[in-house]
Amino acid sequence: MIDLPVIQPETAAPARPRKPDWLRVKLPVGEEYAAVRRLVDEHKLHTICESGNCPNMGECWGAGTATFMILGNICTRSCSFCAVATGRPTEYDLDEPRRVAEAIKLMKVKHAVITSVNRDELKDRGASVWRETVVLTKQLSPETTIETLIPDVKANWDALDVMISGGQEVISHNIETVGSLYRLVRPQARYDRSLEQIRRTKLAGHRTKSGIMLGLGEKADELYQAMDDLVANGLDILTLGQYLQPTKRHLDVAEFITPDQFAHYKEEGLKRGLKYVESGPLVRSSYHAERHVNVPI
Q: Where does this protein reside within or beyond the cell (predicted)?
């Protein structure tokens, strides 16, 4: 009798978690959406709605709102969660503030969110364009409230002072994840530096906001610690949403957080001293942003 070698079955790659039903969204349609689409194209504007593959684009654009991304659409950072293109920026348009302000007026936006890519190669991180965009928007649309979602200024506090001085109602900076995952998720950023940016914004007398993505492998106690750290550094408003992998080159989803878990995390955040928590699977930093302007400072 001949002993045949035992052939071991190939080890299958671990199956990716299947996207649950609560994360399914409708494709953007409708006249209001089409009108916003035309204005964005005509004015050669960038939106984080498109560049970030936001799942709420249909809902927000259908209501005639959008989040504008200034300073181009190429970022100097290479965060492992983000769909925005990474590279050497070639765009620096000093006329961009006027075009954004005029588009916001034409769209009759009641609440505008303005964000940007990281421009680490610029000495002032693009601060002058930031301030001018807010100032011109307020001049052309004095009834429009504004949130600015400012990226990590890499401890250039002079640049931050300029960015937050335009008269906006809400100033946001997303920490994105818990401290233990920073090297994986935001390799060119630092957890303590982001907290310091929020602290300095609050000390300047502003309404502060931040956001965290869940489902990257964080533990509940790490999230609670992040909430405590944010409160200690003067945060008013926190958004919690589900991380969704934009492409196969980005980080895998470690876990899909259930709506009930999101509801529990909202309660925890409020218990820990946050004034407002927007928490849900499809929540993104600018989701329902118009509600945040009334949060007391």
A: Cytoplasm
Report how far residue 139's alpha carbon sits from residue 129's, in angstroms, rounded to the nearest whole number. Answer: 15
Cβ proximity of 240 and 214 under 8 Å? yes
Q: What does the CA dihedral 189, 116, 227, 232 come to, rounded to 10 degrees?
A: 80
Give the model confidence (pLDDT) of 117-159 as tens digits. 999 999 999 999 999 999 999 999 999 999 999 999 999 999 9
Instruction: Report the binding-site residues.
Output: 49, 54, 60, 75, 79, 82, 286
Distance between CA atoms of residues 140 and 166, nearest Å: 14
What is the number of alpha carbons within 13 Å of residue 266 lying toward its C-beta?
Answer: 16
Separation CA 74–CA 198 (nearest Å): 24
Q: For 60-82, what is each residue's pLDDT tens digit? A: 555 556 788 899 889 999 888 88
Detail the residues annotated as belonging to a binding site for [4Fe-4S] cluster.
Answer: 49, 54, 60, 75, 79, 82, 286
Say what the pTM is.
0.86
